[in-house]
């Protein structure tokens, strides 16, 4: 058997968002050797987008892979299908229908290409380089503009029969509850625990409490950052916004725990900047909704990965998965 | 490599319930060569129980395994821990604390012994011999006195980090809802969709509708069977009991689908005798709570295994798992 020198292996990680696409060459230790970004929304045609990626990345590969081996390409993208390597009807991207993205990438770059959605990629990144190293059972929940999730059971990412598993943001936490601005569902986790949901809660609550510091902002300035600022100044309404959000999130997490009994739940994304304002009520309401056999067992922690790099690292981790 | 003659292999499956324990010798095709049962509740001491099992089963092994090989023992039991082979604080059994059941069995019988809870065993049985043959992603939900579940992702049963995954009956489907008679939780799936929960719903609804046929029964005769009898006679109240139950169950199933995206959900247990009275509203409310990408994809079907034998078959399937 030939010995494999891990230090010589490199993966290309690409994270496609609605606005920007980030990419980086990553080694086995999760160090980014080189990175960059292009604007996703500039390209109406997917082939043009891939050409732009190639023009940007090919020189980096030539520069960094003279004494190293590029093992492959991992891509995190909204509505990416792990099994087919396609992007399917992604609402935030301009390329409509079912796009055979992995095939097009592979043909252009000459390397194998694997894809999954951004939250699954983030979970792989945590397992490979972050707070979930060595864990075989954990759930990653990303609290950003939306709520995403990646679920690892028995050391494997849960993809489901069609590659779309792990849409925990769309599970219903309050039947007949708040209507979701995009899906139309009523009472989903995302409607409460995303940055968007927190802003809705904050706007409602500041209207009820005229003395709240939240009232010093214009309507469009209300977001999880400004709520956090007010909470730090001791504003009870702002603190209640996070407590309420944490309650809804904690109730949802309890249900997830009784599904897959994870060792840890990792929280990630802009919302976690609120720190204990959100973490403490989340933990409390998770625990009180658990069966006794699950109580006090699940670590509820924040991600260890730098948010700016996590998406690239996660996408690159797809290349090492099952290697 | 030696050829293995599957037709010569036999597994011993044992299903431990609070009242009775059933056992059977099962071959690779799911045929029960011989079976029997003993009373669980007769034995205050677990060693006496195991002795009784041995006295009953050892002659069967001698009789049936002259030209066959007993590969091992699989046990389904409440609160069984797959990783440790223990039964831990099972409320319905007389043996208190943590019982090293697999070890005791193995020492007495001289064969390896694996354990899991009854619902997980049932899921393995379906995968091996029943409606889930060939499926890698499905969820089994047992609707009996309680609500149990077994979850298969990527071809593997989900045990979780501690062996206790898959307690879907205790997930909360209606925050601050009906108080559970035993756990004290408010609004769990089991409080609505178990036979016990259906009886509670039926007692409430018949009090609201004096003309309901359900009122011809005594209070203690109200159960899912008598509700079914009235539904078959066209009683609108009885039909509404199942519709309401199906709504709660369907809402819960939608959340499960968005977790692991299974190819199918299998329903099992006494409650499914109500047939379409429960299946149709369950399917409707599952579908309407799903994100569009999941709609119309998940088969919602009843178990194919004979209820009397399913527990034995499921326990025996533990022996073949990962073989």
From TrEMBL, chains A, B:
Record-linked InterPro entries: ATPase_NBD (IPR043129), ROK (IPR000600), ROK_cs (IPR049874)
Family in the record: Belongs to the ROK (NagC/XylR) family.
Protein name: ROK family protein
UniProt source species: Planobacterium oryzisoli
């Amino acid at each position: 058997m030939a010995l494999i020198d891990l230090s010589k292996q490199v993966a290309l990680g690409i994270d496609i968002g609605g606005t920007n696409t980030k990419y980086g060459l990553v080694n086995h230790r999760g160090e980014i050797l080189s990175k960059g970004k292009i604007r996703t929304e500039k390209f109406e045609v997917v082939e043009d987008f891939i050409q732009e990626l190639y023009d940007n990345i090919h020189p980096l590969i030539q520069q960094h892979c003279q004494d190293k081996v590029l093992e492959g390409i991992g891509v995190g993208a909204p509505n990416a299908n792990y099994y087919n390597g396609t992007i399917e009807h992604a609402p935030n991207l301009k390329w409509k229908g079912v796009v055979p993205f992995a095939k097009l990438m592979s043909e252009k770059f000459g390397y194998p290409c694997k894809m999954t959605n951004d939250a699954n990629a983030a979970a792989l990144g945590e397992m490979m380089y972050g707070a979930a190293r060595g864990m075989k059972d954990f759930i990653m929940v990303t609290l950003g503009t939306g709520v995403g999730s990646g679920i690892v059971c028995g050391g494997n990412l849960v993809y489901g029969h069609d590659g779309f598993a792990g849409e925990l943001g769309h599970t219903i936490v309050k039947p007949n509850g708040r209507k979701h601005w995009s899906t139309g569902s009523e009472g989903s986790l995302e409607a409460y625990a995303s940055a968007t949901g927190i802003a809705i809660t904050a706007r409602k609550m500041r209207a009820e409490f005229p003395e709240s510091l939240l009232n010093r902002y214009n309507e469009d300035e209300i977001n999880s950052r400004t709520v956090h600022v007010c909470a730090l100044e001791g504003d009870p309404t702002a603190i209640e916004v996070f407590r309420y959000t944490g309650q809804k999130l904690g109730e949802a997490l309890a249900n997830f725990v009784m599904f897959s009994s994870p060792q840890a739940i990792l929280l990630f994304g802009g919302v976690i900047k609120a720190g204990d304002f959100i973490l403490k009520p989340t933990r409390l309401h998770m625990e009180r909704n658990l069966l006794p056999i699950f109580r006090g067992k699940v670590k509820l922690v924040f991600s260890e990965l730098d948010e700016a790099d996590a998406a690239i690292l996660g996408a690159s981790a797809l290349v090492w998965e099952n290697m």
